[in-house]
Design brief:
The chain folds into two domains: 3-44 and 132-308, Glutamine Phosphoribosylpyrophosphate, subunit 1, domain 1 (4-Layer Sandwich); 47-126, Alpha-Beta Plaits (2-Layer Sandwich), CATH 3.30.70.3400. It is globular, with a radius of gyration of 18 Å. The longest helix has 20 residues, at 63-82. The strands form three sheets. A six-stranded antiparallel beta sheet has the order 7-2-8-1-14-13. A five-stranded antiparallel beta sheet has the order 9-10-11-12-15. It has a four-stranded antiparallel beta sheet with strand order 4-5-3-6, covered by helices on one side. The chain contains eight helices and 15 strands. Helix 2 (63-82) packs antiparallel against helix 3. By secondary structure, the protein is α+β, with helices and mostly antiparallel strands. It is 28% helix and 30% strand.
């Protein structure tokens, strides 16, 4: 079933409590997806980059895991410095790490170098985007990663109910559009031409971290934008080029957009005013973050809407 959510503040200079807001929205939809929770959080644009890296899928601690993860951390740091990254800060848990750094080179080369470290996967990379995802409900993940303290401009989130794939971090949403910085997607539905688009994008030189169709959407949109299309234009193309039943939210460094397929079967409700836009699979999620009477509506089938911060 799964639940998706997004929020973007049209003002505030990057000081909105988007981590707290997205936690509340996703927790209200826990019944739609109790297996894992993911956040795509956008801070105000910075001169530095931030990379989130998955180190392990292990749930329980053991001596060997602790030693292996420390070796991973050391090797990742060494590879980044060798590639020319100026590392400014490193933090994380036993399963993930976040690195803030300056860099003037090719981001794909850097991400590829990091992923050559065994058991390592880059979850996100950009000047604004930070993807955090793990097992458990929204409050569990938020508490572990201190997300209620995260301030920024906009965010997306996903509460996952596992159906066809494992309950693990690799299959949790959001998905970053590797290797494009600051582009991510959450998605509810299914693409029926998933394999066709995976083959096409792979032939263009893209690689994928999972077998999830949502990752295809992220890379598809980022590739379109790299060719000069706007986010809205790329999303409109997806309505005719991607087959299936889907509702998805895509975010970039300065925008948030939603698209519903031509059937419009997957639920989504929307609230917008001059200050904020909030959308989610259920209205109860939006009501968690707005302390006033609101009226929501359901975007029509085949509709694309994009908002900028």
């Amino acid at each position: 079933m799964c639940g998706i959510a997004g929020i973007i503040y049209r003002n505030g200079g990057g000081e909105r409590q988007v981590g707290r807001d997205m936690t509340a929205m996703l927790q209200a939809m826990k019944h739609r997806g109790p297996d894992s929770t993911g956040f795509g959080l956008y801070r105000g644009t910075d001169d530095s980059y931030v990379m989130h890296v998955k180190l392990s899928e292990a749930v329980e601690e053991d001596a060997d895991l602790e030693q292996r993860v420390q070796r991973q951390r050391d090797e990742i740091e060494a590879r980044m410095r060798a590639a020319g990254a100026d590392i400014q800060d490193i933090k994380g848990t036993h399963r993930t790490m976040a690195i803030v750094f300056g860099f003037d080179g090719d981001l794909k080369v850097l991400a590829d170098a990091v992923e050559r470290v065994r058991h390592t996967e880059v979850l996100s990379l950009g000047r604004s985007l930070e993807i955090v995802k793990d097992l458990g409900d929204a409050e569990t993940v938020s508490d572990e990663y201190h997300l209620t303290d995260f301030k920024g401009t906009h965010a997306i989130g996903h509460a996952r109910m596992a159906t066809e794939s494992d309950v693990d971090i690799a299959n949790a949403h959001p998905y970053w559009a590797y290797p494009f910085p600051d582009v991510a997607v959450v998605h509810n539905g299914q693409l029926t031409n998933f394999h066709e688009w995976r083959r096409r994008l792979t032939r263009q030189g893209h690689r994928f971290q999972s077998d999830c169709d949502s990752e295809i959407i992220a890379v598809y949109l980022a590739e379109k934008m790299s060719q000069g299309k706007s986010l809205e234009e790329a999303m409109r193309d997806s309505l005719t080029e991607l087959d299936g039943v889907f509702t998805y939210i895509c975010v970039t460094e300065d925008a948030l957009g939603v698209a519903k397929d031509m059937l419009g079967a997957k639920p989504l409700v929307l609230y917008e005013d001059d200050e904020v836009v909030a959308l989610a699979s259920e209205e109860i999620a939006i009501r968690q973050v707005l302390d006033r009477e609101i009226e929501t509506h359901d975007p029509y089938e085949g509709e694309v809407k994009v908002w900028s911060r």
